[in-house]
Structure formats: C-alpha cells, structure tokens
Amino acid sequence: MMGSDEGIPLQDTGQVRFRMRNTITVMNAKGGVGKSTLVLALAETLAAFHNKKVLVVDSDAQASISHMLMPQQQLTALQDEGQTIVDYLIGAVLKERNQNWRHFVISGVSDVDDARSVDLLPSDTSLTLFEREVSKGERETYLRRIIGSCLREAQQIYDFILVDSAPGLSVLTECWLREAAFYLSPTRPDYISTRGLVFLRKFRQRNPEMGFAELLGVVVNMKDPQSSDDDQYDRWLRQNAENRCFNQSILRVTPLQAAAYYSASARSYWAKYPGQTGNQLRQLTDELLRRIAEAQVQ
Ligand SMILES: Nc1ncnc2c1ncn2[C@@H]1O[C@H](COP(=O)(O)OP(=O)(O)OP(=O)(O)O)[C@@H](O)[C@H]1O
Ligand SMILES: [Mg+2]
Fold it and tell me: Which residues are registered as beta bridge partners of 187?
C-alpha cells in the first residue's frame, strides 16, 4: 500500500479525473544533512522556473524552514498569536475542533522576488510538547487521520506540497511518511548520514500494511569537490539501486549555507543561488519533476 493520495479517481464537473500525486516528505533520520536547505531551494526553484504553486509545511520544532522563508519578527508575531501548525494541530487533534488548516497558511513567503508562489505553514518550538501530548493521550491514529485529510485537501490547491521534517522519527514525521505520496532523502556523503537512510528503509519495511510513501530518491548534498572520501561515498551510494540516487549531487558551497538567512530585501533567484549552484538546483528540480511525472502513470 502506498501513501493514501495515490491516484484516487475524483468526480469533477462530470468528468473523472485523477488526483495528482504531489505530496513529498523530505526526510533523513540523521540531522544536519540539508533537509531544510533543499526544501527551501526546491520550493523556490519550482516557483521561479516552473510557475508552480508550492506549500511548504514546517514539521520541525526548530522552525528552521520558517526562519528561512520569513523575517524573524513576522515569525515571532505568528508564534505569539497562535498562528502556526502547532496551534492548528492542538485544536484539530487534541481539542477536536473543526478548524481549517488553510487559516494557518502564510502566502507569498520567500525572499526571492521571482518565487512569489510559495506558501508556508510555519512551526514553533511547542511542537515537541504537542507530540508528547499525542503520545500520552494515545491519539496517534487520530493525528494520522488529520494529517491525511490536510494533505488530500492541499493536493487539490497546490501543485506541490513539500514537508520539511525534523531529524529522528517523531510520531508526526511518521504520519507525513505514511500519508504523503513520496519521500525524498537528502544525505551527506559520509557514513553517519547514510546510516540514517538505512534506518529509514528498515522502518519502511516493518509494517508494510500501514502504508508508506514511495521513495523518489536520495539527494547527495554538501559534497566537497576536492574530497576523495566524498567522491567514494557518492559512488558507493549510487551503486545501490535501492537508493534511487538523483544524478545531480549538490556541492557544499557558501551560497547554500547563506540561503538559511532570510534577506530583508527581495533578491533575484540568481543573486541567491549564483552560477553553478543555481544550475545544480535547476537540474535537480528537473529530475524531480521527471520522476514525479513518471510515477503518476505507474
Ligand atoms: N549544499 C550546502 N552547502 C553548504 N552548506 C549547506 C548546504 N546544505 C546545507 N548547508 C548548511 O548545513 C547546515 C545544515 O543544513 P540544514 O539545516 O538544511 O539541515 P537539516 O537536515 O534540515 O538539519 P536538521 O536535521 O537540524 O533539521 C545549515 O547550516 C545549512 O546552511
Ligand atoms: Mg531542518
């Protein structure tokens, strides 16, 4: 069984059409491999070059991607006003309030002036407390149902939904992995990061009847072009067909490190991701779009 948004026919103005499988959880159990950075860059590339409407879901209590996509002051205000994904989930899952996740979405985030179609469900540190309450109250099944219905609604409104997950494997991350159509795993070309991939693969195989997203592929990130160790790991990862490695690896470069800092003044895509970096991200995005298109017809 795949994630639950798999090619389900929908009645639409008299015609039968198929829901596009467009929900992607970005996940590696290992921290610091570039999950948030790649969610950011993919969302901005899809918006700027492919005219896609993208929803970024921040499912990490660190709120890294929220910080990358909006000014600190705006994020703090949203957190203070109770306008984050945590507030939505507390209401929907713990209080069983009938509320709409769309009221918690911030439109037109990103500091790239040609990436105006990126929306965000921002996060907050209290996400961890919410997850503890879910576990204490044994509400995991209900949480999964809410996550599934959010994704099914979002897939009708957005071209792509990218979920940035926390390191480790929380109850919430498990829900995104089981309910999304696809997952994508960034890794650094080193031993510990690749162990995170193995862990995820084993977890996927444990309860196949519970459903799981389909692997879109592994992205090798932060590769040092001068390092022969990195090159060896890159090749070793590619030898294992189960990884479905993307052809395009992403190099460790200053612009991608700097991309984590939201710029107060809007800038062009090429100013944020100059030269080779922008080219690599565009290649990666093209590959991603091809793989998603191929997966629709299977
Ligand atoms: N290709 C790259 N080149 C240079 N720096 C990078 C690159 N990718 C990510 N970084 C930097 O590496 C650090 C970790 O990246 P990021 O926060 O995206 O990882 P993560 O997997 O989301 O981490 P976490 O598990 O904590 O959520 C950040 O400082 C980021 O700016
Ligand atoms: Mg992150």
Answer: 220
Comparing CA positions, the residue from 297, 16, 11, 293 lying closest to residue 160 is 293
- Domains of the chain (ranges; CATH) run 9-291 (3.40.50.300)
CA dihedral 141, 143, 147, 153 (to 10 degrees): 90
* Nearest residue to 57 (alpha-carbon basis) of 101, 14, 20: 101
CA 282 distance to own-chain centroid: 17
Probe ligand 1: pick from 36, 60, 65, 170, max atoms within 8 Å of CB?
A: 36
b/e map of 120-150 (b: 16 or more CB within 10 Å)? bbbbbeebeebbeebeeeebbeebbbbbbeb
| First and final C-alpha spacing in the chain | 14
| Region 225-245 average pLDDT | 95
Which atom of ligand 1 is nearest to 260's Cα?
Answer: 31
Answer whether 64 contacts ligand 1 (Cβ < 6 A).
yes
Interval between CA 217 and ligand 2 midpoint (Å): 18
CA-CA distance, 238 to 224, in Å (whole number)? 17
Chain segment 61-108, per-residue pLDDT in tens:
999 999 999 999 999 999 999 999 999 999 999 999 999 999 999 999
Residue 253 corresponds to which tokens in the numbers above?
């470069």
Q: What mean pLDDT, rounded, does the chain reach? A: 93
Q: Is the CB of 36 under 6 A from ligand 1?
A: yes
**Whether the CB of 31 sits within 6 Å of ligand 1:** yes
Handedness of CA 273, 118, 128, 33 (dihedral sign): negative
4's CB contacts (< 8 A; 6+ apart) are: 148, 152, 178, 179, 211
